[in-house]
């Protein structure tokens, strides 16, 4: 090969062209960037420009012979690619020219191409048969700044809590005896209670800060210690204490709330039953008022009517029991009653039976149990009576006359628990991602040359593709949950039905995300991920149950979908369904219209990266699923099929609508947040994460979009390629992104992460 096969002006562009043609994804916007540089580059003459522009013809790309010649030319130069240089590709191109020619100045126009096309070393270092001086992580972004953005207004609370977690009582270890593990977790819960964290969400009069938002943020951080601690803490202060706070009145607050917040009174939340699971309205435990004794008699009528999987059941001295309240022979629906379980010597009281659930897949530091009640009498005052009461004369009264509305109002006060579960699941996913990515930034494997160092796992495109979208999702979901809790805590919006719908959907998609993420991280770490010491195995076992407690995800998604259908107003029964369709008639046209073929196949980067496209795609999916679902249900009802049976026939459709609605909600919440990030540098990073999340989600649902004609095959392929490219663009910043989660160094105990 002749050393002067190309003159310097052309040769300096060869590495650039070699990279941009390597993936066969050369869009009009990219061509425009290169054409502009060629046009303005004064080092080129007209002949050089003609040759270079000829290499930009998509209809006539460089031949395989010419492409191979470029590769050989680059390899023969023996130039080292140094990733840490400010403009590595432009600098590399300059050095290649210096190998073959005496004059080789740095070309600013090559730098502009490198910047405007977002070309990162990990896009092309595998393309060149040259020595690569690897840099595992870029320091362009500051993890502390990212963590500060995520903490937001809760920074002081989160930082203080993380400092408390430095206490040796929270040191991680392997626990395989559930009794010993439970005592450790109980002591951790009591320690946090003494520090004031148990009562955070309670009013100041009862030792709290009345700060439910900050309370939710610490859930995520507790997961960095242990899942059992997180759930035990949530049961004691969120479920048991929360039921007293939200469903009780001042007399209950005065008697029990302070003691609950300090863990002097240990309680449990007895709602779920063996025979009814998520169907709270159908529970069979009864609470019958005896007017003669002014007592409520709590009773388990059948063998499978016991309370099931009740956290704190072995340690608690009192339970918040949900039962059918019967007054004057009339069932007034489900209410909560405080029922003592044990005496001062921790012995079970007469009529109360508790059995240990035994060992579980995870969370073995939580004392889950089964509870039966045999004609257990408690005073009338033990009824948590905010929404329904029994008068001294023995009559039932409630300001909410509609039993359905009263039931959902009572349950709605406990929606905050679902947000906390989602936050905890997200914390587990973040922990697993941090371990897997830090491992991938150290672990090397395979290479086609025995002469040079093996490649980092994180440099493999497949590894990037399996982990990077999950990191992007973690950021999106963090922002979405922060906003949800803010809205939930906004007392200026007393009607919480819309929030209930939103939380039901987000809890579902985020806990499913957490489970799949932890599994992917386990596999990404190979056998090391299977070792208990590396934390992922316990996270996998602990987070698994999050998909079914605080509401089974499949049930919650149907709840979310019904909320969308009814515009959060109509109740779902045959008599009320016409009102649903009236609402839909205002929102949707009978024909959503055909998508313009030009739009279906538009593949420009500027379009695919535009939030307007993402929002349109998500909105189109939600609206179309809503409309077609409503039409299906209407069709069944017109045939005389009862509404309940009609909904059963469209159950899978409901689930798809619930997922679509929740994904759209998460993305829209995130983009609203990123628009207000003051620092431009970090805003660009967060916007890129949002773009990756959106394209990845659209890609996952590509089959639906293709069926609807919303995407053409060309656009679907372009989205896949853009997802891969975004993953490689974010590759240098992966360590900064997982450090940006703010996981304290003293809690990153996994050996493979250190």
Structural commentary:
The chain is α/β, with parallel strands linked by helices. The chain is 52% helix and 8% strand. It contains 30 helices and 13 strands. The strands form 4 sheets. Strands 3, 4, 5, 7, 8 and 11 form a 6-stranded mixed β-sheet that branches. A hairpin with a 5-residue loop joins β12 and β13. α6 (88-100) runs antiparallel to α7 (108-116) and α18 packs antiparallel against α19 (536-543). It starts with 7 loop residues before the first helix and ends in a 15-residue tail after the last helix.
Estimated radius of gyration: 30 Å
Mean pLDDT across every amino acid position: 90
End-to-end separation: 48 Å
Provide a count of the helices: 30
| Strand content range | 5-15%
Identify low-pLDDT runs.
568-577, 588-592
Decide which structural class fits the backbone.
Answer: alpha/beta
- Main sheet characteristics: 6 strands, mixed
Give me the count of strands: 13
Provide a short characterization of the protein structure:
The protein is an alpha/beta fold and 754 residues long. 47% of the residues are buried.
Give the tags.
single chain; 754 residues; alpha/beta; six-stranded mixed sheet
């Amino acid at each position: 090969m002749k050393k002067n096969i190309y003159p310097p002006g052309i040769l300096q562009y060869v590495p650039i062209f070699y990279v941009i043609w390597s993936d066969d994804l050369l869009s009009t916007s990219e061509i425009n960037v290169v054409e502009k540089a060629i046009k303005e580059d004064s080092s080129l003459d007209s002949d050089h420009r003609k040759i270079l522009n000829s290499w930009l013809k998509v209809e006539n790309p460089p031949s395989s012979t010419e492409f191979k010649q470029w590769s050989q030319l680059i390899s023969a130069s023996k130039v080292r690619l140094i990733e840490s240089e400010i403009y590595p590709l432009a600098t590399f191109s300059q050095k290649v020219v210096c190998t073959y020619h005496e004059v080789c100045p740095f070309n600013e126009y090559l730098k502009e191409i490198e910047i405007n096309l977002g070309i990162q070393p990990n896009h092309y270092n595998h393309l060149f048969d040259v020595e690569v001086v690897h840099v595992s992580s870029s320091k362009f972004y500051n993890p502390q700044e990212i963590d500060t953005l995520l903490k937001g207004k809760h920074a002081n609370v989160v930082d203080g809590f993380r400092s408390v977690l430095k206490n040796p009582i929270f040191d991680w270890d392997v626990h395989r005896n559930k009794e010993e593990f439970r005592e450790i977790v109980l002591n951790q819960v009591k320690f946090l209670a003494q520090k004031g964290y148990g009562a955070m969400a309670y009013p100041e009069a009862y030792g709290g800060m009345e700060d439910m938002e900050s309370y939710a943020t610490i859930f995520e951080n507790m997961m960095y210690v242990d899942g059992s601690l997180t759930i035990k803490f949530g049961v004691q202060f969120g479920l048991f204490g929360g039921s007293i706070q939200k469903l009780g009145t001042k007399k209950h607050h005065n008697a029990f709330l302070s003691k609950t917040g300090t863990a002097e009174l240990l309680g449990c939340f007895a709602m779920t039953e063996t025979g009814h699971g998520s169907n709270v309205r159908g529970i069979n435990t009864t609470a019958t008022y005896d007017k003669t004794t002014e007592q409520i008699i709590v009773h388990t009528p059948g063998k499978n009517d016991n309370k099931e999987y009740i956290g704190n059941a072995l340690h608690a001295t009192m339970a918040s029991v949900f039962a059918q309240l019967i007054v004057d022979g009339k069932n007034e629906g489900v209410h909560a009653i405080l029922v003592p379980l044990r005496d001062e010597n921790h012995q079970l009281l007469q009529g109360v039976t508790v059995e240990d659930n035994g060992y579980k897949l995870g969370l073995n530091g939580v004392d889950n149990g089964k509870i039966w009640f045999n004609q257990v009498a408690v005073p009338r005052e033990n009824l948590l009576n905010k929404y329904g009461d029994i008068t001294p004369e023995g009559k039932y009264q409630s300001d909410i006359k509609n039993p359905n509305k009263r039931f959902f109002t009572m349950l709605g006060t406990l929606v905050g628990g679902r947000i906390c579960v989602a936050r905890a699941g997200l914390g587990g996913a973040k922990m697993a991602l941090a371990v897997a990515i830090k491992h991938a930034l150290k672990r090397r494997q395979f290479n086609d040359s025995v002469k040079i160092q093996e490649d980092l796992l994180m440099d493999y495109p497949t590894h990037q593709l399996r982990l990077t979208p999950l990191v992007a999702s973690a950021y999106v979901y963090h922002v979405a949950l922060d906003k949800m809790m803010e809205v939930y805590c906004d007392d200026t919006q007393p009607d919480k039905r819309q929030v209930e719908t939103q939380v039901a959907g987000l809890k579902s998609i985020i806990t499913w995300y957490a489970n799949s993420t932890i599994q992917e991280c386990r596999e990404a770490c190979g056998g090391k991920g299977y070792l208990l010491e590396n934390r992922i195995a316990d996270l996998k076992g602990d987070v698994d149950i999050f998909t079914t407690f605080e509401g089974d995800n499949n049930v919650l998604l149907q709840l979310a979908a019904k909320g969308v259908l009814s515009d959060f107003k109509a109740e779902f029964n045959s008599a009320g369904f016409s009102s649903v369709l009236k609402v839909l008639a205002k929102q949707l046209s009978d024909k959503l219209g055909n998508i313009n073929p030009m739009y279906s196949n538009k593949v420009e980067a500027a379009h695919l990266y535009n939030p307007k496209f993402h929002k349109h795609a998500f909105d189109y999916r939600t609206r179309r699923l809503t409309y077609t679902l409503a039409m299906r249900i209407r069709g069944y009802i017109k045939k005389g099929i009862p509404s309940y049976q009609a909904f059963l026939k469209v159950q899978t459709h409901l689930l798809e609508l619930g997922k679509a609605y929740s994904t759209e909600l998460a993305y829209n919440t995130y983009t609203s947040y990123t628009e207000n990030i003051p620092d431009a540098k970090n805003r660009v990073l967060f916007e890129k994460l949002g773009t990756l999340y959106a394209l990845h989600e659209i890609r996952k649902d590509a089959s639906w979009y293709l069926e609807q004609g919303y995407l053409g095959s060309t656009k679907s392929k372009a989205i896949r390629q853009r997802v891969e490219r975004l993953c490689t663009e974010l590759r240098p910043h992966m360590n900064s992104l997982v450090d940006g989660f703010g996981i304290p160094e003293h809690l990153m105990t996994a050996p493979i992460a250190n």
